[in-house]
Write a structure and sequence with these properties.
This protein is α/β, with parallel strands linked by helices. It has a single domain, classed as Rossmann fold (3-Layer(aba) Sandwich). The chain contains seven helices and twelve strands. A ten-stranded mixed beta sheet has the order 9-8-7-10-6-1-4-5-12-11, sandwiched between helices. Strands 2-3 form a two-stranded antiparallel sheet. It binds flavin-adenine dinucleotide. Flavin-adenine dinucleotide binds next to helix 1, strand 4, helix 3, strand 6 and helix 4.
């Protein structure tokens, strides 16, 4: 049996390089000012999909909602082995919180059509909410399993997975279709294939073509660039009031880099008493417990 898999990936600011102009005066993230990377746990999500493809056969469609330059993570997905990629990009989606993001993603998934599995990362390193996966599953009214670090079995229309919780290991068996969110412990993402990189290195979306000019698209058949599908709010029949900032009850007020100064740390005696006093202090500050 071959599977239809949709992988949700996000292009994120490289949070190790947050600069002073990271935020716009209106409190939204200034994404164009920040170096961007492939969200790490989304590489693990794509790797799980590729492992299913290797073992059972699958068609992998990678979907991302983001600004026009989010095609970078889609090109990377093609280099890694994705069969198709879709960019959901429209000014109306800008500054979306998780509610508005999952709304747009769920409509795009409905437009893609049949699927057996949706696989996303546990969380994105910028928003860090881990909410988009579960919210998208809810909007599609399908099963979900989050924080999955092992797919144990896939057969006869059902799946068995292991997930790590605060209370230990949990094994879940559920019917397809299902949405999974994958942790970094699940696998080690494979490197991009040289052959696929050469094939797709010129892939572009039509909203980028102004960077390349019409000649680029007229190149002969052999070098014709792979066109990345781009959908806007009309293509997915989205209600604009449920998209972007207007569809987002949560707005990020401020983000800043927290760099601990020497004065702010203290040495703990390496003994049971030292450990006990540390735990008491952390509990009294409601950091744990
Ligand atoms: C510092 C900061 C704090 C924020 N706090 C909140 C908050 O408290 N509540 C809130 O609603 N919003 C918040 N946001 C906005 C939030 O980041 C965006 O809504 C974002 O699009 C999705 O949330 P996330 O980054 O937490 O993703 P997560 O929910 O952590 O992402 C989980 C997975 O969902 C998939 N996914 C997420 N975004 C996309 C996408 N654009 N395209 C495709 N797949 C995707 C990926 O597989 C990803 O691994 C915050 C943003 C920032 C920068």
């Amino acid at each position: 049996m071959s599977y239809n898999i949709i992988v949700l990936v996000k292009q994120v600011p490289d949070t190790k390089n947050i600069t002073v102009d990271a935020m716009k005066p209106d409190g939204t993230v200034n994404r164009s000012a920040l170096p961007t990377i492939f969200n790490p746990e989304d590489l693990n999500a794509l790797e799980e999909a590729l492992k299913i493809k290797d073992k059972y056969g699958a068609k992998i469609t990678v979907l991302t909602m983001g600004p026009p330059n989010a095609t970078d993570v889609l090109r990377q997905s093609l280099f890694l082995g994705a069969d198709d990629v879709i960019l959901l990009s429209d000014r109306k989606f800008a500054a979306a919180d998780t509610l508005a993001t999952s709304y747009a993603l769920s409509l795009a998934i409905k437009k893609i059509g049949d699927f057996d599995l949706i696989i996303g990362g546990r969380q994105a390193i910028d928003g860090d909410t881990a909410q988009v996966g579960p919210q998208t599953a809810e909007k599609l009214n399908i099963n979900q399993a989050t924080c999955v670090d092992k797919i144990v079995k896939l057969s006869d229309g059902s799946i068995t997975v292991n997930r790590t919780t605060d209370y230990g290991l949990e094994t879940i068996k559920a019917k397809l279709p299902i949405l999974l969110t994958i942790t970094a412990d699940a696998n080690i993402p494979r490197p991009p294939s040289v052959k696929k990189t050469l094939t797709y290195k010129n892939a572009i979306s039509l909203i980028e073509k102004h960077n390349y000019g019409d000649e680029y698209l007229k190149s002969d058949n052999n070098n014709k660039p792979f066109i990345i599908t781009n959908w806007d709010h009309k293509d997915i029949k989205a209600q604009t009031e449920r998209c972007g900032l207007s569809g987002s009850p949560t707005q990020v007020k401020k983000i800043e880099n927290i760099v601990l100064e020497a004065g702010e740390s203290k040495e703990i005696e390496n003994s049971d008493d030292g450990l006990r006093s540390l735990i008491v202090e952390l509990m009294s500050e409601h950091i744990i417990g």
